[in-house]
């Protein structure tokens, strides 16, 4: 169990690709169940009676999953996500370059529960939800393109659907247009960072998760570190305190 952050109110776990976060009607044995059992073995009577899921990841996506240890924390952190008070950065490996080196893209997402898939459209449609993300291409390698994504909204399969609508697909994601699967079934989409002002302590918290071990992710990490030494991601706004933690003062906007 890869616990990457823990305090009296929340626990963050680095999820591998293909792990199911919550139980459904088909699959049993979930990250939530395994974590609770781990805490019971580790803490005995001090373990929480249950865990409350705060953020969800698609099953084939890896990265940070946040659980609340008690109901009050679940309410406060769910409200924080709902008010967009959480910085969310993802790493994505794409099979084609996006239209621009950096951009903010907006779509309207329609979710089909029948096929468990979302569709991104440029205009509003019946039952659609507004979706917005920003991205920065930071490098490339082995016919793939390395992209850092800032997620502004949190819709069903949002990153996967929006990039598919742009004509570029996440490596391994055949549901959204990739040509072949990855070994092991996961996709190259990773929830890399969550940052927020803690609603109980008032402290600034930054949680990062390393991606699964493979040569492509290793090259992504190397190129991202090199990029950030010189450039800032273009998607930061004035007052985004996370920016100054990820980039040195000498870094300049990439598009400048």
Automatic annotation (TrEMBL):
Gene3D superfamilies: Pseudouridine synthase. Pfam families: PseudoU_synth_2 (PF00849). It comes from the Bacteria. PROSITE patterns: PSI_RLU. One of its GO terms (biological process) is RNA processing. GO terms for molecular function: catalytic activity, acting on RNA; pseudouridine synthase activity; RNA binding. Keywords: Isomerase. InterPro entries: PsdUridine_synth_cat_dom_sf (IPR020103), PsdUridine_synth_RluA-like_CS (IPR006224), PsdUridine_synth_RsuA/RluA (IPR006145), RluA_PseudoU_synthase (IPR050188). This is Pseudouridine synthase. Residues 9-165 form the Pseudouridine synthase RsuA/RluA-like domain.
């Amino acid at each position: 169990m890869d616990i990457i952050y823990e305090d009296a109110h929340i626990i963050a776990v680095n999820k591998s690709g293909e792990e199911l976060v919550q139980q459904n009607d088909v699959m049993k044995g979930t990250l939530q169940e395994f974590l609770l059992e781990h805490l019971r073995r580790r803490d005995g009577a001090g373990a929480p009676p249950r865990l409350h899921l705060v953020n969800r990841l698609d099953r084939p996506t890896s990265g940070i999953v946040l659980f609340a240890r008690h109901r009050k924390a679940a309410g406060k952190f769910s409200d924080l996500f709902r008010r967009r008070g959480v910085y969310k950065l993802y790493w994505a490996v794409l099979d084609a370059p996006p239209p621009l080196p950096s951009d903010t893209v907006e779509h309207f997402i329609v979710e089909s529960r029948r096929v468990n898939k979302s569709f991104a459209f440029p205009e509003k449609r019946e039952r659609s939800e507004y979706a917005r993300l920003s991205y920065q291409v930071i490098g490339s390698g082995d016919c793939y393109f390395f992209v850092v994504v800032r997620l502004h909204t949190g819709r069903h399969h949002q990153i996967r659907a929006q990039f598919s609508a742009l004509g570029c697909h996440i490596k391994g994601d055949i549901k959204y247009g990739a040509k072949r699967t990855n070994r092991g079934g996961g996709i190259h989409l990773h929830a890399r960072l969550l940052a927020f002002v803690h609603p109980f302590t008032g402290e600034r918290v930054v949680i990062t998760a390393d991606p699964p071990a493979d040569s492509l992710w290793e090259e992504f990490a190397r190129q991202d570190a090199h990029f950030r030494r010189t450039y800032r991601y273009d998607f930061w706004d004035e007052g985004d305190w996370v920016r100054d933690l990820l980039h040195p003062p000498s870094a300049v906007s990439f598009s400048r």
